[in-house]
Amino acid sequence: MREVAPAITLAGSCEMGGKPLFGPLTLTIPARGWTCLLGPSGVGKSTILRLIAGLEIGGIFDGTVTASDGTDLTDRIAYMAQNDLLFPWLDITGNATLGARMRGEQADYDRAAHLIEQVGLTPYAAQKPATLSGGQRQRAALVRTMMENRPIILLDEPFSALDARTRAEMQELAADLLTGRTVLLVTHDPAEAARLGTTLHLLDESGLATLPTPQTPTIREIDAPETLACQARLFRALRTSPEAA
């Protein structure tokens, strides 16, 4: 049985090169939902993601990252970056099972085949990344993320380079496959946040703000009135943030 996904709290401040980057702030990511973190470039959104993931940030963080169940976050997180980061010499199946094989574990090829089928890539399972479209590569990267079977998923603008139709399809696919997990999505796209977010935050140089969320289930229809109203609110908040001025 998959591990129950906890809530996460990051509290503290960070500096880069001796200059403040963000904080002090407290960011709470509720369990088993999608938290979307928006904001202009350079305010520390991806740094927060890396801090939660336990990755090097190239700066100094004074604070804590904790889970609501009191258990360490190590080995409980899967990370999906903006670039697909697929290994060019491996086919889709090889990329999907790489994590297990690198850890010396028995790769679950049946589960890999099932996930590859779910994302519509079965005809391409033996192909190398160079032969795939951008959307197909992101689908393959999502399969690799899902193969880690972690309760916490960190997404760093993974759909930003895709065309509008493919981006919408990937949002819907990710929302379906990541149901029940604790997800933090860093995005610059108000439309994406309005569709996916159960919790919405804006980070800028003035700090962290929580924004209203539509009282409708995700994933929301693109043209639903609640979605469009939320998108407009988010866009206005981004336009009026100090970094955008």
Walk me through this protein's architecture.
It contains 8 helices and 9 strands. The protein has helices at 45-53, 92-96, 98-102, 109-118, 134-147, 164-177, 190-196, 225-240, and strands spanning 8-16, 19-29, 34-38, 60-67, 77-80, 152-156, 182-186, 199-204, 207-211. The strands form 2 sheets. The protein has a 6-stranded mixed sheet with strand order 5-6-7-3-8-9, sandwiched between helices. A 3-stranded antiparallel sheet has the order 2-1-4, covered by helices on one side. Strand 1 and strand 2 (19-29) form a beta hairpin. Helix 4 packs across helix 5. The mean pLDDT is 93.
Helix and strand arrangement:
Layout: E1 8-16, E2 19-29, E3 34-38, H1 45-53, E4 60-67, E5 77-80, H2 92-96, H3 98-102, H4 109-118, H5 134-147, E6 152-156, H6 164-177, E7 182-186, H7 190-196, E8 199-204, E9 207-211, H8 225-240
Parallel strand pairs: 3-7, 3-8, 5-6, 6-7
Antiparallel strand pairs: 1-2, 1-4, 8-9
Helix pairs in contact: 4-5, 5-6, 7-8
